[in-house]
Structures are given as structure tokens and as C-alpha cells.
Write a structure and sequence with these properties.
heterodimer, A: 312 residues, six-stranded antiparallel β-sheet, 7 helices, 15 strands, B: 306 residues, four-stranded antiparallel β-sheet, four-stranded mixed β-sheet
């Protein structure tokens, strides 16, 4: 989609000799435009929910909310949170899970910790730890988390005290640390710092393994009860930011850049096709401001307003 | 909670304890109650929205407590030997008593409560009757008051209601044997509070003990009591009989709507009526009134009352 968007933007700009948009500027404006549209999905979603509550929204093909949910869910990701210290786990970021989060939708925690350790050898679809006593501590159906790669699998058989059969090949190299938990997961509720002290001090509301809670601070989530502090015990389902769009090219002999999607840093827009018009108009707005051509901006604003009116 | 296989039900899947799941189908767990409520009664298109789960959990627990006080017929029983100090420490989940009995000679004998003071605190005093204090300004107390000492030692008089010439006389019960002063004059009337050949008791709620009269030393006492259903804080064990499941949802709904800003009064009233009628229905259901049971009770109608 990124190439057609660029071509459209360039042709609108060139139509009246408004100027030329370089690939690097296009990429910058594309990122900005995509982020604008991405954020607007959440406001649109809220707007549609309010419409539903007022009974002015339909079902079937008229179910706008469903479409919005589908777009947002495209950015949904579930990852194990990396353990920090005490009861703290790092929230998703480029350095931990590989991607920054826009919002944390839910945090899940395994209810019961069984055992942890380090594998002593590698075997396909197996966990081998010669120092373990699995028969006394692990049950079939438990979840094994490789806390080196943060992948997980389910225990399908307890072969011996030291070997477990898994339904996935999650230990492919040494070293490999692991944690094992019962498969029961509970959702942790986000609470504010103004509440957590009082919550902890009341027997009625004190967080438990069944009803855990968390607070956020400085890029980390603190899980309560504090005994939920094992690496691999906490997962987050979150909405990540869209990837930065990148129109990649090769330079032809005459210096003209030609689109090349085969380059390693190529990245298309992650929004659905029906957002193409909005992307073009938004990029035109930025380009108009950039080349100080008020009429380009006005044209783009007019187009956007028309589209908004149609959607409302 | 997911449905379990019959093997898991009867034998806990081969694990210990075997009876873990017996009767579990009658109950719905706290976790299920909160999850179901959040799914079915809270959300974008519901009366309750943007409400924290811990509030739902709080009201669910309060609802379970209320049911345990009077609606559930789940009476716990604890048997303990009464020590020489004539006291029975209340169990950790005790909220209120139903019946206290002496178990002797294979017979359970319900005891009567003595509402007269049988135990008290005491302050140490000097010979001018002035109260004595320690260096921190706290009043000094003996281990037992004279009232307690006499009760424990059996030197507090009570009425003998056994057979023989001393029936109705004041006497001392020491280690189960009765001793009497010289009988002078006659005794008229009877203190009906304690007119029972069995020992009497009085519950000291603040101290967390049941104090007995002297003849209870070394005897087996069975305490039947109600708890609040909080299972000593083990949330995985907190549950509600399915007869009350709908009531619990209604209770949570009402409690939240009642304390929420901007909810119309008719909505609150509807929730309140809903809650009350569901409690009434559940109480009727759980009372198990059916013809077979009534028939058995009615059969006693021609019995001669002596």
C-alpha cells in the first residue's frame, strides 16, 4: 500500500507543481499520519460504543464496532514480561519484548508456581534437567516457560524425575532456564498507587493468587501478592505501536528513486486498505505545511472533513 | 470452574485427599462468581460499567458473609475437651454460636447459657482500695478474678439438682463431687437461669472463650457454630450454594448501583427488590419443604404431651 500512497501523494503535489517530496520526508510524514489514524481508532471505538448504548447502532454489516475491534486487534500481542526484581516485571518495550506498547489490555499471571531450574542437555520436545525431581513437583498439563527465550509449552508426560515431554520444542540450545507453573492463569487488575496500600491492608480486598493486582511505575509492573515473583509467571496482552512505515528504493541511473520492496528495512503501512485515502490526505497536510503551500493543506483538510462527515 | 469427570469427582483423579471434590457440584466458587459477574453484569452495554474488580470482589465476599449468618444452614461443629481452667477457646472462624453441648456417656446434652456474670477482669488494689499501676501507667491485673478463681475451684455455690435429700440445696461442685454446708432454714424459689443438672456456660466474646461452670472440667464439649464463610482467607475455598448464586449476583449489582453516583433511584429500587425476592426464593428452596418431610412431622400430632 505504501507505494500507491506515495504515488498518489506525489501526483497530487505535482499536479500544480507544488513541489517534490523526498523519500525521507515521505517516510517521516507517513509515520506521523499512521500514528494519527492509529490513535483515532480508539476514539472512534469509544464513540461507537456510546452510539450502541444509545441504541443508534446496528448489527451485521452495520456493526462498525466489530470492524474497529478487528483493526485494533491486528496490533494485539501477548508476551511474557521480563522479570526485573522483587515483584517487578518490565513492561513491554523495544529492549525487552521487542516492541513498545500503546496500552496494556490485560496482565495475566499463572496461579501456582511449581519449580524452576536450568536444563542440562537439549532434546527435541523435552525438558531434561538431571538435578530435578519432576515426579514430585510437576503435573501433566502444567506449563513450562523457557525463561531464556520466553517461549512456552505444555507438559504432556512426566517421563522420569529428570525428563518431561512437552508439546513444543522450546529448548533448542544451551543454556536454557525454565520455570514451571500450573496451567491456571488469572487476570491481574490494574490499580492506582493511591489504592494499593489500602487494598493490601484489608482482608476483603487484599490481592491473592486468584485475584492478583498490579501497579505501574517507571516502565515496570509490580504484581501483588508479592509472592508472584517468578520469572515467566506474568504475561501481558497489549496493543503495540504500529511499525514505522518505510518506503525503500533503489536509485536509478538518472538519480530517480524507484520503489524496491525487497530491501530488509522495507515496511508497509499496517493499517487496513480503506485507510489509504485518510493516509494520503494526512500526508498531504504534512507535506503542505512542509512546503508552505496553504492550498495543499486546505485541500487535504477539506477531504478529511468530508470523510469524517460520511463516517458519522 | 470446569466440569470434572466422575473419576475426578469420586477419587480426585487418584490424588490426595480422595474426598476433595465430594459434593462440590452444589457450590459455585468465589472465583466463578466474580468472573461471571464481570462477564455478564458489567461492561460497555450494562448498568454497571467501569467498575473495579476489587469492588465486585468486596461485595461478593460481603454477600457470602450475609448468607452464612442466617440463610445457609451450614452449621459447623467442633469437639474439644474443656481444660481445668473451664474454658473453651472459640475456633478461628467463629462468628456466632448455635448450640453448646456436653458429650457424656454417649449422649449429647445441650447446655444452657448462664447470663449471670461468671467471669470478670480484676484490678489489683492496695489495702486502701486504691488501684495499683506499673511504671508505664498501666493498671495491674491478677491472672484471675476471685469470681473466676471460685468458679474454677468449684468454691462458688450453685444449686444441687440431683437426687436425694440435698436436692435444691446450695452446694459446691468440686471435681464433679458435691459438698454442702450445714442446712439451715429452707430455700424457696429456684434460679431458673441455672436450674439444670448439667453445667452452664457463658461466652466471653471479647476474650474469645466460653467459660463453664465447675463441673465441666475435663468433659467433652461440642460447639455448634456459624462462620462467615471466608474460610480463613483461602479464597479458593470460598463458595456459595447454587441455590443462592442468582442472589449473590443481585446482591453485588445492588451494592454497586446503590453506591454509584448518578444512578436513578428507580434503578436502585429495582435492584433492591430483585435482591430481596431472590433471597426469599433461595431460602424457600434450601429449606427443602416437601410433602414427605411434612408427613413425617405431622405424624407426631397425636402424641400425648405429658
Amino acid at each position: 500500500m505504501i507505494n500507491t500512497v506515495r504515488n498518489t501523494v506525489l501526483s497530487v503535489l505535482n499536479k500544480n507543481n507544488y513541489g517534490y517530496l523526498s523519500p525521507s520526508d515521505f517516510n517521516l510524514f507517513s509515520k506521523q499520519a499512521q500514528m494519527d489514524i492509529f490513535e483515532s481508532y480508539f476514539y472512534q471505538y469509544n464513540y461507537q460504543i456510546n452510539k450502541e448504548n444509545k441504541r443508534s447502532s446496528g448489527t451485521g454489516y452495520a456493526d462498525i464496532t466489530k470492524g474497529l475491534e478487528e483493526v485494533i486487534d491486528e496490533f494485539s500481542k501477548t508476551d511474557y514480561l521480563r522479570y526485573s526484581n522483587a515483584n517487578k516485571f518490565f513492561l513491554p518495550s523495544a529492549t525487552t519484548t521487542g516492541e513498545d506498547y500503546y496500552l496494556i489490555n490485560k496482565i495475566l499471571a499463572y496461579q501456582t508456581f511449581r519449580v524452576n531450574g536450568t536444563i542440562t542437555s537439549v532434546s527435541a520436545n523435552q525438558l531434561v534437567d538431571l538435578t530435578a525431581t519432576f515426579t514430585a513437583t510437576v503435573a501433566i498439563g502444567d506449563v513450562v516457560v523457557n525463561t531464556t527465550t520466553y517461549s512456552s509449552a505444555e507438559v504432556t508426560a512426566i517421563v522420569s524425575d529428570t525428563v518431561l515431554s512437552l508439546d513444543g520444542d522450546i529448548f533448542t540450545s544451551l543454556p536454557g532456564d525454565y520455570s514451571i507453573f500450573s496451567s491456571v492463569q488469572n487476570e491481574a487488575e490494574r490499580v492506582g498507587h493511591s489504592k494499593i496500600t489500602m487494598l493490601n491492608s484489608s482482608p476483603f480486598t487484599a490481592p491473592s493468587e486468584i485475584f492478583p493486582v498490579y501497579t505501574e511505575e517507571s516502565g515496570a509492573a509490580s504484581i501483588f501478592p508479592k509472592k508472584m515473583k517468578n520469572d515467566g509467571q506474568v504475561l501481558a496482552q497489549y496493543i503495540r505501536y504500529p511499525k514505522e512505515p518505510k518506503w525503500t528504493y533503489i536509485v536509478l541511473a538518472n538519480g530517480e528513486p524507484a520503489f524496491d520492496a525487497s530491501q530488509s528495512d522495507y515496511q508497509d503501512f499496517e493499517l487496513p486498505l480503506d485507510d489509504e485515502v485518510t493516509l494520503v490526505t494526512k500526508i498531504l497536510q504534512y507535506a503542505g505545511i512542509s512546503i508552505r503551500e496553504a492550498s495543499v493543506s486546505q485541500f487535504a483538510n477539506g477531504e478529511e472533513q468530508k470523510e469524517n462527515q460520511t463516517q458519522a | 470452574m470446569a466440569y470434572i469427570s466422575q473419576y475426578e469427582y469420586y477419587e480426585n483423579g487418584g490424588a490426595n485427599p480422595e474426598n476433595e471434590n465430594w459434593g462440590s457440584y452444589q457450590y459455585v466458587t468465589l472465583k466463578d462468581i466474580v468472573n461471571n459477574f464481570m462477564l455478564m453484569y458489567a461492561g460497555n452495554h450494562s448498568l454497571i460499567n467501569n467498575e473495579e474488580r476489587y469492588k465486585v470482589l468486596f461485595h461478593a465476599k460481603r454477600g457470602v458473609q450475609e448468607l452464612n449468618y442466617d440463610a445457609f444452614k451450614e452449621i459447623k461443629a467442633l469437639e474439644l475437651n474443656v481444660s481445668d481452667l473451664l474454658r473453651f477457646v472459640l475456633p478461628p472462624d467463629y462468628v456466632n454460636w448455635v448450640r453448646i453441648s456436653l458429650y457424656k456417656d454417649g449422649v449429647l446434652r445441650p447446655l444452657t447459657e448462664n447470663i449471670q456474670a461468671t467471669s470478670s477482669d480484676a484490678y489489683l488494689q492496695d489495702n486502701s482500695y486504691r488501684i495499683l499501676f506499673d511504671i508505664d501507667g498501666n493498671v495491674l491485673k491478677p491472672e484471675f478474678s476471685f469470681l473466676d478463681t471460685d468458679r474454677i475451684a468449684g468454691t462458688k455455690k450453685s444449686i444441687y439438682l440431683g437426687d436425694g435429700a440435698y436436692n435444691g440445696k446450695d452446694g459446691y461442685n468440686i471435681d464433679g463431687a458435691w459438698y454442702f454446708d450445714y442446712s439451715i432454714g429452707a430455700r424457696y424459689g429456684l434460679n431458673t437461669e441455672t436450674a439444670n443438672s448439667n453445667p452452664t456456660f457463658r461466652i466471653d466474646k471479647k476474650s474469645g472463650v466460653i467459660n463453664f461452670s465447675s463441673s465441666m472440667a475435663g468433659e467433652l464439649c461440642v460447639l455448634e457454630y456459624v462462620s462467615d464463610g471466608m474460610e480463613n482467607g483461602d479464597e479458593s475455598s470460598i463458595s456459595v450454594n447454587k441455590m443462592f448464586e442468582e442472589f449473590i449476583y443481585a446482591y453485588i449489582r445492588y451494592s454497586i448501583l446503590n453506591s454509584k453516583l448518578g444512578v436513578q433511584e428507580y434503578v436502585v429500587n429495582r435492584a433492591k427488590k430483585d435482591k430481596s425476592s431472590l433471597l426469599r426464593n433461595a431460602k424457600i428452596r434450601i429449606s427443602n419443604i416437601h410433602p414427605g418431610r411434612l408427613l413425617m412431622n405431622m405424624r407426631g400430632q397425636n402424641k400425648i404431651i405429658k
